[in-house]
Structure prediction request, 396 residues.
Amino acid sequence: MPLTSSTPRIAIVGAGLGGLVCASVLQQHGFPVTVFERETGPGSRSQGGSLDIHEGTGQVALRAAGLLDRFLALSRPEGQEWRMYDRHANLVRRDRAGAGDLSRPEIDRGRLRALLLDSLAPGTVRWDHPVQAATPLPHGGARLHHHDRGTEDFDLVVGADGAWSRVRPAVSEARPAYTGVTMVETRFDDVDRRHPGIARLVGAGTMSAKAGHRSLVMQRNSDGHVRVYVTFRGPQDWHAGIDLEDTEAVRARLLTRYQGWDESLLAILRDSEGGFVNRPMFVLPVPHSWQRVPGITLLGDAAHLMPPVGVGANLALLDGAELAQAVIGHAGVDEALDAYESVMLPRAIDNAKTAQHMLATLMPEPGSGPGSDEALFPDSLWPDSTLPAPGPAHSS
Prediction:
């Protein structure tokens, strides 16, 4: 669709990966777009851990934005290494990418986001602009309601605002539900010099030690930084009776969950630096879809929040690029959304079903399967069962 006086007014809510790649592709083709983000600036908070960007999804999106070469220059192909241990610290399996393998290179989420932000025209992102809601207008388009009580009307509003999307209620009544699995995040810094034992365990990429419904995951990021994800099945209030800000109390509570594990693995809990961040795992219902609402759609976690088994960020990127391409290639917004949603929703449902199955296999409910070292990582889940760090909920 050529740029004319009738070019649609487009708003994207959420400056995460999916929203930013959508804006980038639109701008490359001359479409003005505004991104509304509740964060106060690009460096206002940590952006999460490392992501493996897949050649069939996330890399396709970055190519559409003209950013693939720059991404590859920043990425870490060696980060594709995976190590699997049992609770006795026996190495069960190791997977390393071959020379020249760029199928799933790693990149820090913050670096990828910065790459996408740099691709946008100055002023595209309105920082410190939280959105309260979106509502469809009687004759097409949608109205954004800002937290300062102001409103703005657009021909297209895209909800890219993550798990607790403020745009989603305009198209769906679905709300995320707790999966029964929690990830507690902590970290190591300057790991090769200060924590050589941890560095040996994690290797160049990611390691996971697993037994039954408990695992310890470590993921190497850039500059000697390692993120840790203590993952277990249990009630959402597993921390009842302690203050999550009390690092030593949380550490002691977690250590009780991993009694009997090898000392080299318990060192992950004992020696970690900084505090612990509680990240209960939420998902949207499967399947999740909606009837078309003129002028409003969703992408990424806002559309299909699923367990973090290695596909969420990649699907968000692909959603964003494909939505932009649909707008560019169709004469009107309604036609573009029909084309986009007819592909995105079935793909999301298929991936959500697979992710749901992976979570049930990797983190079995008590009594539902082997309870010790037998339920490790079946070949059917290797290597697509990777568990990268879940980014903050509104960063899709």
In short: The first helix runs from residue 17 to 28. The chain has two domains: 10-79+102-176+285-361, 178-281+366-381. Residues 341 and 367 are 39 Å apart (CA to CA). Confidence is low (pLDDT under 50) at residues 1-5, 370-396.
